[in-house]
Write a structure and sequence with these properties.
Elements: E1 3-8, H1 13-25, E2 28-34, E3 42-44, H2 50-60, E4 64-67, H3 74-79, H4 81-102, E5 105-111, H5 133-148, E6 153-157, E7 160-161, H6 171-174, E8 192-195, E9 203-204, H7 205-224, E10 233-236, H8 245-256, E11 263-266, H9 286-291
Parallel strand pairs: 1-2, 1-4, 2-3, 4-5, 5-6, 6-10, 7-9, 8-11
Length: about 290
């Protein structure tokens, strides 16, 4: 029997990549949940409606739930912390609670923003210290999941990119708008400043999906053979190329043969008024390399 996998946020950037990877392997029966971008291939579910969520999990009885849905925009979380908490903490807890009721295993998607970025690289057991409400809400979600379902796995990832449906769907592609990508007419603004301070590790969602499939395979083996160990707790997954936002803009310009001469790097730390971001929250990925 194929392993039945329920994916929340299945129409989002990471959710689509995970769905595709699992479908490709042919070993999984994939159930996709979405709310804003429904299609004939997805089940509509408002995750904020606990009864709806419970009913979907009870009726589909998945072996595994991959919880990709989240409010991932730090600025939105700072502006509306109560909604961010509902979405990133309460929903995560409810998914874990009903996963336990159904005997399902769970993979929670977390972030490098759980760290303050002052002492990289960070291992899975390094001290967390989120600087933003987004980072705090994702960390609290991780803690809530582990409280409800101690066997769960939390996959922490950094800045994600991949094949987008809209430019705003990922941090790196949203920067392409500064180069006129997607605009009918474009008048470059001279001396457009872009962050050249914060260090990021852009990571391809397809690569994260491959790791998640590996975790599911390990889980399946441990389920079928008591002598084999599954994966529990926190796992770090990350690309290894360090880039600032400025570097990303230049890389997009090079790849698309566009002019980036109107853009300059802002190399000072950002002002204290905006959403705080870690300077360098590089994730140490040696653990995942040993288990997969």
């Amino acid at each position: 029997l194929p392993m039945k996998v329920l994916i929340t946020g299945a129409t989002g950037l990471l959710g689509r990549a995970v769905s595709k990877e699992l479908a490709k392997s042919g070993k999984y029966d994939v159930v996709r949940l979405s709310y804003t971008r429904c299609s004939s291939e997805t089940i509509s579910c408002d995750l904020l409606d606990e009864t709806q969520l419970q009913n979907v999990i009870k009726s589909t009885k998945p072996h595994v739930i991959i919880h990709c849905a989240a409010e991932r925009r730090p600025d939105v979380c700072e502006k509306d912390p109560s909604l961010a908490r509902k979405f990133n903490v309460d929903v995560a807890r409810n998914v874990a609670k009903y996963a336990l009721e159904c005997g399902s295993w769970m993979v929670y998607i977390c972030t490098d923003y759980v760290f303050d970025g002052e002492q990289p690289p960070y291992k899975e057991d390094s001290k967390t210290n989120p600087l933003s409400f987004y980072g705090q809400s994702k960390l609290d979600g991780e803690i809530a999941v582990m409280e409800e379902l101690p066997t769960a796995c939390s996959v922490r990832v950094p800045l994600l990119y991949g094949q987008v449906e809209t430019l705003d769907e990922s941090g790196p592609t949203s920067l392409a708008k500064m180069l006129g990508v997607g605009a009918d007419t474009f008048n470059p603004v001279l001396n457009t400043m872009v962050d050249g301070w914060q260090i990021r590790y852009p990571t391809l969602v397809d690569d994260v999906a491959v790791v998640i499939e590996g975790l599911l395979a390990r889980h399946g083996e441990s389920r079928d053979d008591a002598a084999k160990e599954g994966v529990e707790g926190v796992v770090h997954v990350s690309g290894n190329e360090r880039m600032t936002k400025y570097d990303i803009v230049v890389a997009i310009a090079d790849a698309c043969k566009l002019d980036a001469s109107h853009i300059s790097p802002q190399t000072d730390p950002p002002s204290s008024s905006g959403t705080k971001r870690p300077y360098n929250a590089q994730l140490d990925t040696s653990h995942v390399d040993t288990i997969l």
